[in-house]
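Minutes, project check-in
Item: structure for the 122-residue chain
Input as provided by the requester:
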Amino acid sequence: MPVLTDGWQTVASDLNLQKDCLLNFHPLSQFGIDLSCYVNGVCGESYYTINCYLRLGVTIIEDAFVEECYGDNPPTGTYDICYKGSLWIVYTSKLHSSYVFSHGWPELCNDLGIHEDDLLTG
């Protein structure tokens, strides 16, 4: 498994990376990497969550993402999710203090092979 060693402390310091942030490395070329840093589950207009539908009956949309990207217009209602030419209609709603994917989500997970505890980015 490749490991970043020399120079990583400088990168982490220059980018002010927090201890518990999630990093996504995307290769640009043989020697280039695009780095995305998810802090509190959010990176720009993207976020990550863990699929927990089997345990909870819903999958949570991160609060920091809702606040950052939706503000006063939270993500309730239906969303068309298109992937590789297929379409799923997924419902979102508020459950306690969080927004969640609910109806339609199990079918999407089943069709795409998304498992419990898979890390999802959006």
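Outcome recorded: Helices lie at 8-14, 53-56, 63-70, 105-112.
No further action items on this chain.
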